[in-house]
Request: fold
Amino acid sequence: MKTLDLETKSVSGDYSDHMALEPWRVRQGKAFILSISVYHENNQCTHVENPTPAQLIEILDDLAGCEVFAHNSVFDVAWLIASIQPKKFGSIPECVRKIRWRDSMLLAKWVLNGQKFERLHYSLSLANLVGDALRDDPDVQQFIDFKKQGEISEDSEYWNLRGQLDVLWTHKLVNRLFPRLAPTQYVGWIIESKCIVPVANSWLIGLKIDKQRLLRLHDELAEEDRLIHVKTGFDISMATSPKRLGNLLFDQMGLTSVKNTPTGNPSTDEESLKKIEYSLKQAGDERAKLVDQIMDVRYNATIRSKYVKTTLTALERTGDGYVYPIPKLFGTSSGRFTYSNETVKGVKVSLAAHQMPRKEKRVREAVICEEGMGISEWDAAGQESRIMCLHSRDPVMTDIFLNHKNFHSMTACNIIGVPYNTFQAKVDAEDPEAIEYRQMGKLTNLSCNFRISGPALSAQAFTKYDMLIPIPVGNKLVSTFKHTYIGVPRYWDRAIQNARQTGYTNSASDRRYQIDTWDRAWMSEQSALSLPIQATGADHKLIAIATVHEKNPDALFLMDLHDALFYIVPRKEEHDNIGATLNSIDYKGLWSQLDVNIPLPFEGKYGTSFRDVK
Reply:
């Protein structure tokens, strides 16, 4: 086992420009690798300052086939790729691909993930982990004090020495943490490690933005707001002022608030407004229309701020027509990706990529690809339901997915009490009533996986899906789900019991989430039964990313968004090749905690913008 660290620098020499934290700056000629350090098993350290691409290749060639740890490996690997391969859409260098990359920060997350660490806002920085895991080392405080100097130092000599110390302490940290990784977790951790290279390369690719489309969207939103003002007389600026909006809704209009803010004022957040509108509609109150239009204005303000303004600000900084969301493997407790849109606080380099709205096509069509390239999107079809089927071992779900039946139709026919084949024939014939009941089946399936009451489902139907469902109907939907898929409630009980006994809940690859606060039983129980499903979803996509990286070198991973994986491809044929790879994955042997007895398919779309493919 070897450890590696890079120190990087802006060409300007000014660390305050933060370009030393942006690996894509290498290809702009604005940043470079100041030094590379490699620590070997024999207590020897290779250290090269201002390495040339040829020197980097030589060092990496010597590491071919070796297990090489870095702390936040995605960062180091991205810098190495950018320094060796000058082309954005060029092949990932073989000298990078041949190394078995590992990450001490990811390793720490695998062994430390849980409620306790969330309460502590536990930092996974090298200094914090070393100070905790190696507190018995006599030299540890000296290292931590040295690291703190980096907060103010612009001295290259300091950074060159820091690289050599980082690889030493990363080596010590791995030796201390690795024995805490359970044997049943090893395969899952290795699969995630295999994603380091494609994810690092995706950071360098970034997202190409159609700036003119964003500017048009800004004008479209303004016109929508103007029309609402003309129709209702509503002061548009009031929508983004909680105090003024609260005064209108609760003092002038006499509406009843559904919750208060921490300061005791009536809340006007989106959820509260949705619930108020729901109550008004239930009562047939005409004021629901104004609340709905206020939410439209609020929505427009969010799109304008979060996606239009932020993206335009990011484009000014990046300067090349691309934005660069910063990927974070194991970014959530479930193991799913997250993306940051800031290099440091306040320095925007992207839109909020992982929150890109599913239904706002005007935002999605502004994310495009380079001329001559294509965007290949692969959605994990019905992922959550299929994974619930695997965990619950429910016989009806198993029959549905094995025999390619329509899951939502199956639920709908049980709601209304007709045979499945009869109902599905009406759906296939596009019978309006059957289509409507199938939507009700879909709502039920999407809402009931993780325990929900009838009143909560009724409220959620409106706040999430704009469906008005009376509470008695909500009660019936919940009851139907439980009686149709009897394995699911049994899974809930089993998952909670296992978590209480072991102190953790886990995914198919034994990614664990430690639960230690049962005094708030409902919340911990919800974590116990939902984390295995969500974390197995993360496992599923990591297997997909690692497999495509290995078998389809011309497919360049772009991002993970919602339930889908996105790639940049040079031709439509490569899109089809990705699909062949994804839908031939054999999951047996990859998941230590789960027997896969149903298909886990991916469904693909191809186009030149995110609107085309989603």
